[in-house]
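Predict structure. Chain length: 167.
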Amino acid sequence: MIYLFSDGSSLTPGGAGGWAFVAVRDIVDPIQAKWQTQVGTKIVDSNGGREKTTNNRMEMAAVNEGMKWILTSCGTMQPLTVVADSKYVIDGITKWRKKWERTNFKGSAGAIKNQDIWTHLFANVDQFEVKVKFIHIRGHRGIYWNEYVDRLARNAADEIREQQIGW
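Prediction complete.
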């Protein structure tokens, strides 16, 4: 089983943002990794960013990029649990997806935001030949790998901002 921890960061709405993921093995329960104690074995981590974005888009990008790495490097039969502190991402995949697809991404207030990334996320989930599990955790609660990806995502956002202002 691989656990994919992900996080996104946006410094200001519509400003620089970053995403990050880490893939980890040898964890019995992702919540066991509390209080800044490293549990499990890191396989890979990655981060990146965008100049003009939102926090939700970066949260989604983190999961998307992590799942693409798992699919490419480990294959479609790899058991996977995605652990994210974004309820928006977890609920979008596990609760709202069927309705959005049925209504062609239209909601009561109009078009669903971020359809472009949702479409990629759903396609990546569908490539797995085993059921992908999704777990929502509360952020900034001392869960080691969540704090780890939070730092990576913030660092990526900071790098983008520094490039923008020429530091």
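Summary: The chain has four helices and seven strands.
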